[in-house]
Amino acid sequence: MAKAGKRLQAAKAKIDRKKAYSVDEAVALIKENAKAKFDETIEIAMNLGVDPRHADQMVRGVVALPNGTGRTVRVAVFARDAKAEEAKKAGADVIGAEDLMEQIQKGEINFDKVIATPDMMPLVGRLGKILGPRGMMPNPRVGTVTPDVTKAIDEAKGGAVEFRVEKAGVIHAGVGKASFDEKALVDNVRTFLTAVFKAKPTGAKGAYVKKIAISSTMGPGIMIDVADAAAV
Which residue in 71, 187, 191, 231 has a CA-CA distance of 20 to 30 Å to 98? Predict the structure, then answer.
């Protein structure tokens, strides 16, 4: 803990807490300060000027990061018969119907993403209270309820990131690993930012994006200039 504390203090000393950096500058600082013994995740947090309790202010979507997320994503698919075979060939980690529902109800959730064919949604709907709070409930708006299970699995494993604004108006997501080179991280960050800016809801009033911060798992947060982030 002492070494980690010293690392964090040293990292903070290199950052001007009152300054909002460009995306390029922020990524360079993140890379410089990611000194943990494991490959730290690079995360973005955005404070939005919306109230997601109102339907016309909800912000959600999915974006394919050009350089992936750097993490292995385990995918579960609700499908039967031919679609279950298709899911198996596409590399799904868990496939099932009632048996998969029972597994989830028992708390056996050894996967990161859930995909379902449309005909399976009456079954999957019973799992809303379990999958919903985990952000894993399939939804046609983000491509996880679809007859094209091959495409959905490829996107999930290839770097597709779902985002959804939380009650406090915050969106956060992992956009890569510290081991990525700077250009790959910058490309991922800008791609993610562009998707969130484009997802601005009709009911948003005033400033849509109020604050953006980027950090590594063990590093301090660095503010990103909103104007620079919007210029993508």
Answer: 71
**Confidence band, pLDDT 50/70/90 cuts, at residue 1:** very low
**Alpha-carbon distance 82 to 102, whole Å?**
21
DSSP tag of 168: T
**Are residues 15 and 224 in contact, defined by beta-carbon separation less than 8 angstroms?**
no
pLDDT value of position 160: 85
Q: Which two tokens stand for residue 71?
A: 């993490």
Q: Is the Cα torsion angle 124, 127, 128, 131 positive or negative in sign?
A: negative
Structure-block tokens of residue 16: 């001007």
In angstroms, the CA 58 to CA 203 distance is: 8
Cα distance between residue 179 and residue 199, in whole Å: 29
Examine the pLDDT at 180 and tell me if it is beyond 90.
yes
Spatial distance between the Cα atoms of 1 and 66, rounded to a whole number of angstroms: 35
Of the two residues 1 and 88, the one the predictor is more confident about is 88
DSSP letter assigned to residue 145: B
Q: Encoding tokens for residue 25?
A: 């500058």
Going by the DSSP 8-state scheme, the letter that residue 106 receives in this structure is T
- What are 218-231's pLDDT values in tens digits? 888 999 999 988 87
Structure tokens of 7? 């690392």
CA distances, 80 to each of 40, 62, 98, 163 (Å): 38, 25, 10, 28
